[in-house]
Design brief:
Blueprint (H helix, E strand, L loop, with lengths): L7 H13 L1 H9 L10 E6 L4 E6 L2 E2 L1 H12 L4 E6 L8 E4 H17 L7 E5 L4 H13 L2 E4 L6 H10 L4 E5 L2 E3 L2 E3 L1 H9 L8 E5 L13 E3 H5 L11 E2 L3 E7 L7 E6 H15 L7 E4 L6 H13 L3 E5 L10 H9 L3 E4 L1 H8 L4 H4 L8 E5 L5 H11 L6 E4 L33 E4 L11 E7 L9 E2 L3 H9 L6 E9 L5 E6 L3 E4 L2 E4 H8 L5 E11 L3 E10 L6 H15 L8 E5 L12 H8 L17 H7 L4
Parallel strand pairs: 4-17, 6-7, 6-8, 7-14, 8-11, 11-12, 16-17, 16-18, 18-19, 19-20, 29-30
Antiparallel strand pairs: 1-2, 3-13, 4-5, 9-10, 14-15, 15-23, 21-22, 22-24, 24-25, 26-27, 28-29
The chain binds ligand 6R9.
Amino acid sequence: MTHRINSFDEYKEQYEKSVTNPESFWAEVAETFSWYKKWDQVLEWDFRKPAVKWFKNAKLNITENCLDRHLETRPDQTAIIFEPNDPEAPVQKFTYRELHLAVCRAANALKANGIKKGDRVCFYMPMVPELAIGVLACARIGAVHSVVFAGFSAQALADRIKDASCKMVICSDFNNRGAKHIPVKNVVDDALKMDCDSIETVLVHRNTGDGIEWTEGRDKWWHEEVDPQSGDCPAEVMDAEDMLFILYTSGSTGKPKGVVHTCGGYMVYTTYSFKNVFQYREGDVYWCTADIGWITGHSYIVYGPLAAGATTVMFEGVPTYPHAGRFWEVVEKHKVNQFYTAPTAIRALMAFGDEPVKKYDLTSLRILGSVGEPINEEAWNWYHETVGNKGCPIVDTWWQTETGGIMISGLGGLSPMKPAHAGYPLPGVQLCLVDNEGVEIEGNDVEGLLCVKFPWPSILRTTYGDHERCRTTYFAMFEDKYFTGDGARRDENGMYRIIGRVDDVLNVSGHRMGTAEVENAINEHPKVVESAVVGYPHDIKGQGIYAYVITTEEVSDEDAFAKEVRDVVTREIGPIAKPDRIQVVSGLPKTRSGKIMRRILRKVASGDTSNLGDTSTLLNPEIVEEIKSGAKQ
Ligand code: 6R9
């Protein structure tokens, strides 16, 4: 396939072209895909509404592009390598022909169970091939998938099912994750007790074979529904702007947002960015360690790599099971060429030293990728020196659920690299930095709020069921710009360094979480009156969660109380949102207008109390001393 940039000069040329004539640039890229009907117009947009249409009136099916068209050129090439949690368990491989067949069967099973174009199907599953197959089966028939990370609680799952009025949930019986054995179907059963009236069917994939509860009429086995189906399932003709999926993500308010991506632009952009950032070549084996429950898994395990005809690895396990060398063992085993992971995993493995890395032959590695949060210099250097043996370029890829694909990154091996800097925008991505008033900050060696001033093909189209929320969150802050919520620096050479969120969003181990979301969960504890949550620097997680809690009565056993609070958060959201530190306080620092002054709470949480800044506007300045003296370290 064409459109792989081959030098930094070529990148500059392409970038220039993408800015001066975006429509012809993207039309040329889009020409390399298969469409039932081409577009009448490449782009129509208005950020004020927002309304963005790419490839207007074009018709396609993304699975034709991920599967069918490869049947002519690479039917016997491996599409997916599945590496199970247990290293002794057999590896499963699907060629493009086999994957096509599996997807068609699953698609027919969905149809047989009443799923039609436009219906929403929720997934709550481990990283097994059936997850990728199920997602593609939805896309095949035009159903909209909403994958919920299987670490979320029953409550969080129920909220997401209800928000999208899903008709079906697809889950597994149990999950194996490291040494853990997680009763997933059980969580689904609990969620469905919480008024999820829209659900008609629960399709259960037999993963471990352990006993589960069964609701006759509602629950069905995946293998019984899928296996007898025909392997012929014509792809539904989709408009380029028809919905492909919903993926929930946290914002600064308590309620997660259903970010909506559509078929045409998302396909074009994820494929284009995949090939260029990872410099994917025919025959390469590519591995992204993310979970398909996050956007990284959607775009860079499933859609981008498969549309590009790549071999993509799916890993069920965790980095440290059964030992801290597991990632490297898998790299050696499958001769992985591109490896894409998160800084939190790198930091966690770095703590085990070089020895678990050095045990394995990593000479197949050509490109290393990072995503999810800023990568600190120490982790960057270890990744580069120990894992990459100084011979593999690192691509530090900045992007978001809302952007659908990678926005800022080096192109593996072509672009200049600088630790902790994501680098330059991809072709088609027109960035700008603005000040608090929205005035653009020109020139280099400057810092500001990161915005994008022109649409790229995989920009979010709406937030499900609430378009106004999409407008106010992303497009109303600054006129005619998409606001990312991140602050960034542009260095003297124009390279971007992401500083982090400027809103009330935490980034814990690369997972986004709104402070309000965690506070709402903590407030469910019967003894909690009010709480405030902030992030603080954490060696492994990047950010840890620090919670300040006001209680109805005095707490005699703080440890026992902290455990109760963590249990409540686990129940409401999931274990990833558990506060690391919990401090009981008698009040929170508030301004006269009643706003919590988080600046002070952040400073105390990070142990930096020497200069708390101006506290004179506080309604209750005396509380600051109490908070300082009781700080948890
Ligand atoms: C893909 C993904 C998005 C937020 C984003 C930013 C942070 C992601 C980053 C990064 C610095 C990187 N982020 N990649 N920060 N350098 N390479 O992670 O999507 O879960 O929506 O998170 O993550 O703060 O705004 P999502």
